[in-house]
Design brief:
The protein is an all-alpha fold and 221 residues long. The protein has 2 domains: 110 residues, Lysozyme (Orthogonal Bundle), CATH 1.10.530; 65 residues, Membrane-bound Lytic Murein Transglycosylase D, Chain A (Roll). Helix content is 47%, strand content 3%. The protein contains 10 helices and 2 strands, in the order αααααααβαααβ. It has a two-stranded antiparallel ribbon with strand order 1-2. Helix 1 packs antiparallel against helix 4 and helix 8 packs across helix 9. The protein starts with 9 loop residues before the first helix and ends with a strand.
């Protein structure tokens, strides 16, 4: 990691051997582009590299989005993917970073904690913005005002429906893939314009947009 050192004791490396071995199975996920993300990593990546997966630290061997130094990259199985972090794909960098996090949490990135520390909660997740509760408190006040006028509108719409139902004796129910020209030809209507004019209330203002299930009245022959 950026300005971070690799595990210093043989015990720690031995302890992580199981993690590295388990990570080999994660290689299967690479073929489908799947990679996990540990809590709070977005803030860490932003502080370490600005989200640049090809970033290179000028003062150390740290590279990649997580700024992993070559020694740590090797210790956590990164060589199975590429010589250095920046030469690996984003998904491969994610796998190695997940192994590091599984072993030590966010501690390996403490060098940049002054940047991301205040943005990550105790559980490692990004803290909610301070103004979030204010937005919630405003919602209940607006709700009653919008419900009152909406409740009164459905009544006149339902009353208008019976006026169209008995318009003609023969009907056609629109099916998937139908359009007015085809229906007019199949039902012996002289023109789709005639069919549209008769059913303008059902179809609406766009004769090219008819929906399955619409009940169209056919002109009397």
């Amino acid at each position: 990691m950026g300005r971070h050192s690799k595990p210093s004791t043989s015990k720690k490396i031995a302890r992580n051997t199981a993690i590295i071995a388990a990570g080999a199975g994660t290689t299967l996920a690479l073929s489908s582009g799947i990679a996990s993300a540990f809590p709070g990593q977005d803030a860490i990546i932003k502080c370490e590299s600005g989200g640049n997966y090809q970033a290179k630290n000028k003062s150390s061997t740290a590279s990649g989005a997580f700024q992993i130094i070559n020694g740590t990259w090797k210790a956590y199985g990164g060589l199975q993917f590429a010589p250095t972090a920046r030469q690996a794909t984003p998904a491969q960098q994610q796998i190695v970073a997940d192994r590091i996090y599984a072993a030590s949490g966010t501690a390996p990135w403490n060098a940049s904690k002054h940047c991301w520390g205040g943005k990550i909660g105790k559980a490692g997740e990004t803290k909610p913005k301070a103004n979030a509760p204010k937005a919630k408190s405003k919602a209940p006040k607006a709700a009653p005002k919008k419900q009152t006028p909406k409740a009164a509108k459905p009544a006149p719409k339902k009353a208008a429906a019976p006026k169209h139902a008995p318009a003609a004796g023969k009907h056609y129910v629109v099916k998937q893939g139908d359009y007015l020209v085809r229906i007019a030809a199949q039902q012996g209507v002289d023109s789709w314009h005639t069919l549209y004019d008769l059913n303008r209330q059902v179809i609406g203002g766009n004769p090219n947009l008819i929906l399955p299930g619409q009940d169209l009245v056919l002109p009397q022959q």
